[in-house]
Amino acid sequence: MKILITGTTGYIAKRLALQLLEGGHELVCCVRDMNRIPDEIENHPSVDFLKVDFLAIEDVQFPVNIDAAYYLIHSMATTSEDFESLEETCARNFKFLIENTQCKQVIYLSGIVNDRSLSKHLRSRYQVEEILTSDRYALTTFRAGIIVGSGSASFEIIRDIVEKLPVMVTPKWLHTRSQPIAIRDVLTYLSAALGKKELHDRSFDICGPEVLSYKQMLHQFAEVRGLKRYILTLPVLSPKLSSYWLYFVTSTSFPLASALVDSMKVEVIGKPNELDKIINIVPLTYKEAVTRAFQKIEQNAVISSWKDAVSSGVFRDQLAKHIEIPTYGCFKDIRSREIHDENYTLDKIWSIGGKNGWYSFNGLWKMRGYVDKLFGGVGLRRGRTHESYLEPGDPLDFWRVLLADRKQKRLLLFAEMKLPGEAWLEFKIAKDKLYQRAVFRPKGVWGRLYWYLVLPFHAFVFRGMINALVSKK
Questions:
Q1: Environment class of residue 431 by beta-carbon count within 10 Å: exposed (0-12), middle (13-18) or buried (19+)?
Q2: Were 360 and a residue from 56, 93, 220, 465 both cysteine, which residue would form a disulfide, CB within 3.0 to 4.6 Å?
Q3: CA atoms within a 13 Å half-sphere pointing along the CA-CB vector of 250
Q4: SS (H, E, C) the chain
Q5: How do residues 187-240 score in pLDDT, each as one tens digit?
Q6: Please, which residues have CB within 8 angstroms of residue 330's CB and are 6 or more apart in sequence?
Q7: Are 112 and 143 in contact (CB under 8 A)?
């Protein structure tokens, strides 16, 4: 079958694309930014890429011979106050484009909407489901709650909480019940639904076999990790304070923390259905899902992460708009060193950040991360998705990867920490030399003042970093 996928760079779609290719399908992958095509599928002979911004579809046309399509666009982490209208616009534009093809089935991954008091995001997803309904194609909707898998937002947030806090004083929403589902099972439902007429024009709740409170999930997660954790829940803690608690304790952004707290007040429990018999699946338990997730992490086989989404940082534009480093009106710190072992230096560059740190004065980098978090930035807790592999769009502590070309021996990062301006950090090897360039474009007087305040630290931080990249000592 020829299948169109939206949200190609997202957590679900990136994994689903690989699974569909294994099944022998042809794919048309929609991307908003052609610089963020996943390496795993970029050169695959059965994949075509289509540049589409579903908020503005002028001059966009889908291939006519599409058999089925997946709608996997969500705005959970957006800071926009008007995200509901943005999601509505995206859904209507997608529907307009797909109705002008031969598509017979659209599969939409939504959220469980059985509670009478829905959060804004769940209400928005239900609204999208109604918009996507059409008499030109069949709509199959799968409604999921918490998705558990390596790199998923819920998994990484619970991991942060459990592994960092032996004793927890938590908000009362930890008593809210949910029905978590393993990412493996989500992908099975999505891929197995293709062409099944008994699933046409129907919606199904997909979930694991257990109904658990968030507190129970924390305890079970701790058991899998061999940890003992003590949890005290407060009877009163405002949504705003809950959001700040989640934001400071975990690696999540504040907009996502606020959205999650809003959703966590709602019970997300699935309604029974015959879907498991139709697709022939036995969903994993929560502990089994967590165990499998850590197996992927230990094998360094995490394909996608919620942090890959540019909305997990400060980006609202395409990466291409930032990839050209400005020349005028900027402050610069440029250094170079002769290299003795090119592969060694490239390995060090491609492994920078995360657990490996920044090779020089890591205490100062951590302090800068704490300050950034204090002022509402992303901080250092995002780390990196892979230990030694980078591709455009990857988060790297409080940076975003703009370009990672090992053949060209160049890595370019854009700062996502809170700054009175814009900052780039570049590493490039040419003619047996490593060039390290930090560029800062200030905004107003405060930007200039900021540069001169941190300038004394640059002298030894940047010098130490480039020395460590070329030296094997």
A1: exposed
A2: 465
A3: 28
A4: CEEEECCCCCHHHHHHHHHHHHCCCEEEEEECCHHHCCHHHHCCCCEEEEECECCECCCCCCCCCCCEEEECCCCCCCCCCCHHHHHHHHHHHHHHHHCCCCCCEEEEEEECCCCCCCCHHHHHHHHHHHHHCCCCCEEEEEEECCEECCCCHHHHHHHHHHHHCCEEEECHHHHCEECCEEHHHHHHHHHHCCCCHHHCCEEEEECCCCCEEHHHHHHHHHHHCCCCCEEEECCCCCHHHHHHHHHHHCCCCHHHHHHHHHHHCCCECCCCCCHHHHHCCCCCCHHHHHHHHHHHHHCCCCCCCHHHCHHHCCCCCCHHHCCCCCCCCCEEEEEEEECCCHHHHHHHHHCCCHHHCCCCCHHHHHHHHHHHHHCCCCCCCCCECCCCCCCCCCEECCEEEEEEECCCCEEEEEECCCCCEEEEEEEEEECCEEEEEEEEEECHHHHHHHHHHHHHHHHHHHHHHHHHHHCCC
A5: 999 999 999 999 999 999 999 999 999 889 999 999 999 999 898 887 766 667
A6: 439, 440, 441, 442
A7: yes
d(CA 184, CA 336): 46
Domains parsed from the chain with CATH numbers: 2-299 (3.40.50.720), 319-470 (3.30.530)
Nearest to 42 by CA among 410, 296, 391: 391
In this structure, which amino acid lies at residue 207? Answer: C
pLDDT, tens digit (0-9, with 9 covering 90-100), for 275-329: 988 998 899 999 999 998 888 776 655 555 555 554 444 445 555 566 778 878 8
Amino acid of residue 371: V
Q: Note the pTM of the prediction, 2 decimals.
A: 0.74
Positive or negative: CA dihedral 34, 36, 38, 42: positive
- Going by C-alpha positions, the residue among 155, 375, 381 that lies closest to residue 249 is 381
359, 448 in Cβ contact below 8 A? Answer: no
194 close to 220: Cβ distance less than 8 angstroms: no
Instruction: Give strand pairing partners of 268.
Output: 178
Give, in order, the Cα–Cα distances in Å from 302 to each of 14, 149, 151, 305, 384: 11, 9, 7, 7, 11
Angle CA 447–453–458, to nearest 5: 105
Average pLDDT over the chain, rounded to whole? 84
